[in-house]
Amino acid sequence: MSFVFNLKHLTGYEPTSLGEKIHLYRELRSLTQKEVGKRVGYSEITAETRMGRYENDKNKPKEETIDALAQALEINRDSLYETNLKSFNTMCHALFDIGALHGLRPILANDGNYYLEFGKPQYESIYQDGNYKLFLKQWYEASLRYELSVHDSDEERERKIREYALWRAEYPDNVNAHSESQYLNDLEKIELLDMIAEDIQTEKKKLEKSMKIDEMVKTVMPYVEPQYSPIKKLSDFIRILWEAQEGGLDVEMNAPFMYAPAGFFHLVSFRTEEIVLSSNHAALYAKILCGFITMNNMGIKIDSVYNRLHQNYYVSFLCHEDHKELFEDISEILYKMDNKIIAMKKEKWSESKRKEEFEKLISGKDRLLVGKNNN
User: Fold this and answer.
1) Residue 109 resides in a domain
2) Is the pLDDT reported for residue 283 higher than 50?
3) Distance between CA 6 and CA 19 in Å, rounded?
4) What is the pLDDT at residue 13?
């Protein structure tokens, strides 16, 4: 089984010039040069001569004449465009142009072979005007319909080649508008359902991770609470985060989302996989929770959200904008601390040196944590 992608079987060549294409489609329609010329609007006397000069590429028809020729031959106007892709290099550069304009790109498949696929093109307007999936679907269906078989007779083989050539020339005018509209509607529904399914799966994952963290925190909290001294100063809160970082629980200073919920600022985030990695990590996280509970009891509004960035899930803590000044103080220290931690890891500082640098960092940060309830 093989599919006909060219017309060499029928004509001995693949038409590339405008004249060759006019000649081919005229013959496929079983029309004489005079008949086509008269359809275009030429007189009985000049019709055949005019068409002969066009088909031999001696004269090039004007744009309006090309429109009339396409109508006379009952084909799509764009099928008469001129291109010569016989050269391999020319073909390569044509594919580059299609890639730039329409998002065609090479991919390496799991079978080790390279294929071409349509991605999003460079120009948004082109992407909106054309539906690449629909085009490939219609082309694929045509390839099945006109696929050649070794069992085909000569007549059947010629019929398939002729019909495919005309299908190609008439495209997309020969596609049922209702079927196209229905396909696009179905495609939009599938894409919407995929998005909904992904959102549901994300929410499910968030809930699962939240439940797992809650379970581990519940287990370690009886051991953490007796050792926890309620924080009173800004430095106390920073110390808890430092201890968590020193204990191997990464404190994320950057928000794993573009925008915080309205009215809140991002404080810190923790990757859920880090929290449940061990009982020690869970205990460090539980101590941080104790600190946030204390802050809430002081009237400092702290909230938490679960979110996803790429394949990672996070629990993020947010400070209400009522405490913007406090938030800015904390953020400044946290970013300084983050830079210190990077330097420590790079230069492999000793534990005593790390502790000394941390004490310098929080020196003078004895501001009391005061919320509305304590004013």
Assistant:
1) no
2) yes
3) 17
4) 62
